[in-house]
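[09:14] KT: can someone run the structure on this one? pasting the chain below
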Amino acid sequence: MRIKRFAAQTLPMVIERIKEEFGLGAVILSQRENPENGLVEVTAGVREEDLPDNLARKAHRESEAPLAAKPPKPVSPGTPVGSGLKAYRNAASMGRSANKESALDSVNWLEVKEELVGSINSGIGQLRELILDLAHRQSLSEKWRDRGDLIHLYRQLLATSLEPELARDLVEKAAESLAAWGGELGGQLRRTVRPLLRAKEGAWPRTLAILGPSGSGKTTVLVKLAALAQKKGLKVSAITLDTLKLGAAGQLAQYARIMGLGLKACQSRAELDEARELFDNADLILVDTSTRDFLGAGQLELLAGTRAQTLLVLPANLKTEDLMEVYQRAMGPDLWAVVFSKLDETKTLGGLLSLIIRVGPSLGFFSTGPRIPEDFSVAQADKFLDLWLAPQMEEGLDK
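[09:31] RB: done, structure tokens below
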């Protein structure tokens, strides 16, 4: 095996030098930053047979050798020598002879090209993984950089769209817990995150206004919540302020008729007062708000007339920055909890977890599918962890 130390100003420059001299078969043995000169030093090794120019040199030497010293292997016309790179190498090793041309004619050049492309792509993939591994290794604190399991976990958390600094913090806290208490890394990660998930407990407010940005599924959440409340034996009525959206009131009216809900559409404070008097005997009043006037002055004035606490619907497929913006706009003394909707429409819940860690909202309900009310439930910490750490990911945490 040939081993050599390479140095350059940046890691990509070192990698490029290793590629040029050792090819794609090189293995990184160690890497460090030299504090004396500021250069990145990488020690790499490669087997002699994997050096990129060895095969070419071997073929050249054999082609230049006297024919008497090494006679070519006879190849009769029509006799195949195989296909792909192996066939090419066999043909090239036969030296200068008429048989060489016969052998080359039998090579499947399409397979040679496909194998070469496959080999190059494989090498590029391995190099990419190496660079990512080194980059993620540097993201962790120095005491954890040699832990392959922690680097693997860090990469998995990034794949859930969790913000990098939060992923690093969770990984290192889980590592500290693992060092102190033992067990499994996946279990310690769950124990680290669980206290951050504050599920709302206790009785629901009598009046809940459902808020949310366009496309969040507010009306669907209202219907699911009404069905869940009815299942608990509560008498439910509904008020809609969303009279501007085409078909919104009609859609809710259809659900109300099927479920036996009291329903009134309101556009003024006087109509709201009438609705509250009409639904005086209801255990739960749900208010469907307008998306077009989301937290606008007109809607806020109407909401004040309902004396409602608010339930903010946040779709799981929003980006972290969009989730933060919506939450900050809705945040206030009347905000009772949040609903995470469309949990079945994305596999990356890191954006929601980033929101939870940064602002700590109270979790009210989860909407995980289209069924009513089977796919709607009261928020639970373990339920969120199960959804965030998908089975295929969690199985890999402790490998």
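[09:33] KT: thanks! The chain is about 50% helix and 15% strand.
[09:34] RB: yep, looked fine to me
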